[in-house]
What does this fold into?
Amino acid sequence: MNFNKVMLGGNLTRDIELTHTRQNTAVANFGMAVNERYKGSDGSQQVRTTFVDCEAWGRTAETMAQYLSKGRPVFIEGRLQFDQWDDRDTGQKRSKLKVRVDSFQFVDSGGGGQQGGGSPSRGPAGRREMPMGSDENPF
It folds into this structure.
């Protein structure tokens, strides 16, 4: 059996870079920082940060690029994708493991975002859910 599913909650480490393919399909590349809190051997609270490269396509990419920026919290769901290529300068084989985003949810950062008509419904823990097939403005 094969299963490839990733769920991450964290903050964007940089603004989303939106590009388009030759067929005009939107592609969004961004990084996330995900913090893990644990107790150290001396009993003190420790934080380990994992940095993850992510990629979204199509309407998901466009929506993320429009409404998210560096520092914003977000919850993503997707799958791991392994890319390989030859380095242009050295000719050496290169590789990268990233998350291919299938869907995402806005996460409130506690700073009273807009509400009202056209606003996505709030799910558990204050998350704003955005149906990815929708062209509706989430704010």
About this structure: The two ends are 41 Å apart (CA to CA). Strands lie at 6-12, 17-20, 26-39, 45-57, 73-86, 93-107, 127-129.
